[in-house]
Design a protein that fits this description.
TIM Barrel; 2 domains; six-stranded parallel beta sheet; four-stranded antiparallel beta sheet; 12 strands; about 40% helix; elongated
Length: about 280
């Protein structure tokens, strides 16, 4: 759940922007059938099994439109929900319920889809030392929602943004001239409290990263046998992350490596939404 400072400073502006995208002047459909205020209620119903996530954002969407709106929840973020389950009731001005419906559901469906997919991947790593990480491959302006959903699903967050940590990828190394130069320059520039991670693609780069004193070495798109050799070279001198087109379908092939982390962009860029609806709207 987001604390009040994060909610007001970082979440509310994004929800308001989404509402403004959907309502540029008025909700013509709603104003046509409901010209005057009228109290009502509507049911939040799950239409498929999954992990629910984003209930606070769902509620906030309505209360930003009208702070008199009230949501009665029967579940909480992280719960396993079933098809047909009644998850909440929303009470308020019917006009608010109608014009906020789509935006509220968009957030809830997307976040629940990510949490559900992440959970299905995380269970494949149970019993191992390896932590599942997300990436920065998120929907623009939705990272704060998507990375939260990864945590609710049982995954862990990699760096939040470019200010959050040093990760020297192939083009950084190309710009610096070599792995050694890139690590040296990062150590000179970055605060000493920052770990330095280096992305490598060959065993020669692995050797260079170890010698340069990288804190974390990311094995990117390497063959399985090559990664085994890389682990022997690193030999505990750095933490190890594996990355590169990791999905639920192929992550099992990596579990025998004993790496510290496996990162997967698919957690956020390829998770399908979870089907959720607001139904049975009526006046009270």
């Amino acid at each position: 759940m987001y604390d009040q400072v994060t909610l007001k400073l970082n979440v509310d502006p994004l929800i308001l922007s989404a509402l403004q995208e959907d309502i540029t002047s008025e909700d013509v459909s709603t104003n046509s059938v409901m010209p005057e205020p009228k109290d009502g209620e509507v049911d939040l119903i799950c239409k498929e099994d999954g992990i629910i996530c984003g209930l606070q954002v769902f509620e906030r969407t309505f209360t930003l439109l009208d702070d008199k709106t009230r949501v009665e929840f029967f579940v909480q973020d992280g719960d396993e929900v079933k098809k047909g389950q009644l998850m909440a009731k929303v009470y308020g001005d019917i006009r608010v319920l109608l014009c906020g419906e789509r935006t509220a559901l968009n957030y809830l469906q997307r976040m629940s889809g990510i949490a559900t997919y992440t959970h299905s991947v995380a269970v494949l790593l149970e019993g191992s030392k390896t932590k599942l990480l997300d990436t920065r491959k998120t929907t623009p302006n939705n990272r704060i929602f998507e990375k939260y959903a990864v945590r609710i699903g049982g995954g862990n967050n990699h760096r939040y943004n470019l200010s959050d940590g040093v990760l020297l990828k192939d083009n950084h190394i190309g710009a610096a001239g070599s792995v050694t130069k890139a690590v040296t320059m990062a150590k000179e520039y970055a605060p000493f409290v920052r770990k330095i991670e280096v992305e490598v693609e060959t065993l020669d780069m692995v050797k260079e990263a170890v010698a340069a004193g990288a804190d974390i070495i990311m094995l990117d798109n390497m063959e399985h046998e090559e990664m085994k050799k890389a682990m022997e070279i690193i030999d505990g001198k750095a933490e190890v992350e594996v990355s590169g087109n990791v999905t639920k379908e192929n992550i099992a092939r990596l579990t025998d490596l004993g790496v510290d982390y496996i990162s997967s962009g698919a957690l956020t860029h390829s998770a399908p939404i979870m089907d959720i609806s607001l139904k049975n709207l009526h006046a009270i």
